[in-house]
Amino acid sequence: MKKHLLILLTLVAFSSVYAQDQNSAIVLELFTSQGCSSCPPADALLDDIREQYENDNVYVLSYHVDYWNRLGWRDPFSTEAYSDYQRDYAVKFRSRSIYTPQLVVNGSEHFTGSNQYKADDALRRYAKAPTTNNISISDVNQKGNTVSFSYTTKGDEFSTVTLALVVAERITKVSRGENRNRTLKNTNIVANRVVKNEETGEVSIAIPDWVGDTDQLAVIAYTQDSGLRTTGAVRIEI
């Protein structure tokens, strides 16, 4: 009896490890801007997805681009680096131009970020796709305007790991530009990011000045292969 119980426990343990290694991970990257009049519906959809899949392996990020800033409202969360990252996807998808709101799913496909039908369809399809990389984050420490931690990745098809510092949400009253007099909600705003190509290492991420003491912070880490396809993801609260 003891022997059978030992075998059963061994099988259960092995199954749990295997299941953990094969978890799906869906990373939704929304390229958006507070200066874009068609972006608020996409921002709202991303927030809905975050709430609906809060306990699942679905990771949403808002990348605020800077090329709308010239039209009267400077998006306080925007950087040129995120516009450049979007251009990397344009090369991958053989697009002649970049646009907002653009939703990229697992680095594998893109569509207008407010299209709920396509978003729901993508969530169903990618929920069945196993990951090939595991990521762990440890020794997280916030000191002053810096968050530092260690990371480790395991698995195949690894090219880079993105370590993104995100702010859970912000409400902004826009006074100028295309969204003049509107109150906007943005979700999981990427405040800063570091991209590494080493399997393990230590990272320090600077916290921008616009992040306040009451903001809820987290780190979302995701691996990508050489074609920018997502191969694994993890999130840790700070």
Q: How is this structure best described in words?
A:
The chain has 238 residues and is α+β, with helices and mostly antiparallel strands. It has one domain: Immunoglobulin-like. Helix content is 24%, strand content 40%. The chain is built from four helices and eleven strands. A hairpin with a 5-residue loop joins strand 10 and strand 11.
- Described by the principal axes of the CA atoms, the overall outline is globular
- What's the mean pLDDT score? 90
CATH superfamily: Immunoglobulins
The structural domain count equals 1
Order of helices and strands: HEHEHEEHEEEEEEE
Count of extended strands: 11
Indicate the structural class: alpha+beta
The percent range for helix content is: 10-25%
Level-2 CATH architecture: Sandwich
Distance between the termini: 46 Å
Keywords: Signal
Signal peptide: 1-19
Protein name: DUF1223 domain-containing protein
Pfam family, one: DUF1223
Which helices and strands, and how do they pair?
Elements: H1 2-21, E1 26-32, H2 40-52, E2 58-64, H3 80-92, E3 102-105, E4 109-112, H4 116-126, E5 133-143, E6 146-155, E7 160-174, E8 182-196, E9 200-206, E10 217-224, E11 230-237
Parallel strand pairs: 1-2
Antiparallel strand pairs: 1-3, 3-4, 5-6, 6-9, 7-8, 7-10, 10-11
Short description:
The chain is of the alpha+beta class. It has helices spanning 2-21, 40-52, 80-92, 116-126, and strands at 26-32, 58-64, 102-105, 109-112, 133-143, 146-155, 160-174, 182-196, 200-206, 217-224, 230-237.
